[in-house]
Amino acid sequence: METPTHCTLCPRRCGADRTRTHGLCGGGGMVKIARAALHFWEEPCISGTQGSGTVFFSGCPLQCCYCQNHGISAGNFGREISTRRLADIFLELQEQGAHNINLVTAGHYLPWVCEALDMARPGLHIPVVYNTSGYETPEAVAALRGYVDIWLADVKYRSPELSAEYSNAPDYFEAARTAVKAMIAQAGPPVLDGQGLMRSGVILRHLALPGAAADTRAVLRFMAKELPPGSFLTSLMSQYTPFYKAKEHKALGRRISTYEYRKAVDYAVELGLTEGFMQEKSSAKEEYTPAFNLEGV
Question: Binding positions for [4Fe-4S] cluster (predicted)?
Answer without folding.
Answer: 60, 64, 67
